[in-house]
Amino acid sequence: MNVYYNPEHFGLEIADEFHRPDLWYEFDMVVVFRRIEDGKLFWGADSGCSCPLPFERFTSIESLSPLPETERSFQLAKDALFSVS
Hints:
By secondary structure, the protein is mainly beta. It is about 15% helix and about 35% strand.
């Protein structure tokens, strides 16, 4: 079970997602999650070919990074989308 496909299991919801639109049979994405109980934001980035599932290795909330609550934070998350290796 991972945070992307089952966020509610971890007390999360997906707040926003950013995908590179130019990819075929692969993914490169950043997802911002919101913890339901207090609204705290977390983010994670993942990329790969079409074989693994996105966020396959993200199996706990500890796999995500806290996201400071500033306007700039969302821009940083978007920028990270293009720097995922």
